[in-house]
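Exercise 7b. Backbone tokens:
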């Protein structure tokens, strides 16, 4: 696994969502920000995450991989829900009694659903259910109202299908997850997301998945116990710029403008709505980073080892020094939190959540938490690592003038 690239692309992409357009620039990256000016930390050590929760999450992940490796096996029986049926058919219009040649199909497939939500040929799913290979039968069906955009006269048409089934196949899901499945799956996902985070064995991937979920659950509790008031303006604007730069680059690749591309890419109703979403997201990202930095400062952590490890990899060459420093700090905090929080049985987890809620709003360093618990940080169970962050409490609302100023940055990014 490419460790440096994992931190730079996974840690910062997951927590900061920065665009690659920032690479190589000397940006803000929070190096001159005092996190304690904005953050009041609550309890962030001695928290627990249910082992049952982690087990269930891994089981769900493993099942997804097994499903992705399923195969089709021909069966000599009537089609049941979940089976894939191969059939040929001709259709006769009920209004004229004439054959509708455009509706004839050969060796078409359909996977039978228990409750189909949308059918182009209404009733076909149910008609195929219960029929076996080489059976020929008729069924009165109706074409959907949106069946064709080119031949609109077919929409809603009542027809009689004569159907011949040529094959019935059932889905066979492997019972055991293998190293090869994990390797192929993680390589596919890494290629899709543009990362190098791949795994060779089931055990390795299981550990990573549990670690990822572990840290996600820890951060849910940490942010619940933390209050953030305000945010560093320059850093929020830089995050805003980076996001717009990235979207603008994608727009150029697609031969369109930022104004046309952004609403579709973000699922927003308008360009202005998309800008507001990016503004809010940039503020939220800035506040998440502040929590990391507040813990880093409170614990007087040292990022140098992580920094050296990242810089030793050539994949970090395109990133500015401040960018790598922030990545190293975030990774250092992740490891600290995972070393000072633990798994527990589900019953104990409930008490851990109550303890977490009671600590909400309190300003505590690790030393204060340890004193309350009567234990040291080094005595607590070590938990694994990953990258995740949740919503922040106490988010400051931006006034209209500031929103206008931030939104105006879109024009700058579009012209870049």
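Sequence design result:
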């Amino acid at each position: 696994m490419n460790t440096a690239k994992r931190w730079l692309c996974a840690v910062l992409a997951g927590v900061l969502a920065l665009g690659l357009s920032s690479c190589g620039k000397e940006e803000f990256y929070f190096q001159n920000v005092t996190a304690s000016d904005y953050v009041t930390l609550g309890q962030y050590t001695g928290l627990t995450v249910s082992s049952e929760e982690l087990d269930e999450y891994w089981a769900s992940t493993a099942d997804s991989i097994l499903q992705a490796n399923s195969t089709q096996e021909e069966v000599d029986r009537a089609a049941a829900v979940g089976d894939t049926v191969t059939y040929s058919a001709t259709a006769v219009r009920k209004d004229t009694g004439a054959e509708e040649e455009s509706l004839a199909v050969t060796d078409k497939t359909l996977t039978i659903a228990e409750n189909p939500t949308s059918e182009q040929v209404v009733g076909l799913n149910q008609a195929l259910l219960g029929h076996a290979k080489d059976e020929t039968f008729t069924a009165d069906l109706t074409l959907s109202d949106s069946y064709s955009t080119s031949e609109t006269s077919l929409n809603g048409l009542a027809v009689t299908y004569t159907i011949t089934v040529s094959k019935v196949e059932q889905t066979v899901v492997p019972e055991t997850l293998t190293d090869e499945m994990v390797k192929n799956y993680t390589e596919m996902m890494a290629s899709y997301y543009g990362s190098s985070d791949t795994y060779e064995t089931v055990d390795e991937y299981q550990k990573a998945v549990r670690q990822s979920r572990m840290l996600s659950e820890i951060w849910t509790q940490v942010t619940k116990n933390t209050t953030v008031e305000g945010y560093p303006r320059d850093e929020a604007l830089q995050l805003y710029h980076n996001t717009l730069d990235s979207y603008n680059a994608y727009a150029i690749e697609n031969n369109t403008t930022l104004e046309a591309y952004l609403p579709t890419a973000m699922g927003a109703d308008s360009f202005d709505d998309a800008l507001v979403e990016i503004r809010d997201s940039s503020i939220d990202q800035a506040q998440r980073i502040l929590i990391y930095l507040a813990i880093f400062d409170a614990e007087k952590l040292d990022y140098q080892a992580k920094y050296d490890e990242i810089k030793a990899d050539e994949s970090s060459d395109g990133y500015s020094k401040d960018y790598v420093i922030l990545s190293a700090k975030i990774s250092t905090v992740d490891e600290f939190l995972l070393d000072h929080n633990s798994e527990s049985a589900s019953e104990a987890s409930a008490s851990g959540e109550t303890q977490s809620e009671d600590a909400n709003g309190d300003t505590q360093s690790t030393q204060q938490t340890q004193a309350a618990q009567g234990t040291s940080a080094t005595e607590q169970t070590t938990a694994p690592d990953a990258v995740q962050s949740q919503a922040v409490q106490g988010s400051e609302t931006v006034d209209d003038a500031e929103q206008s100023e931030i939104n105006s940055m879109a024009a700058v990014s579009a012209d870049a």
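Instructor comment: The first strand starts at residue 39 and ends at 40. Residues 340 and 379 are 8 Å apart (CA to CA).
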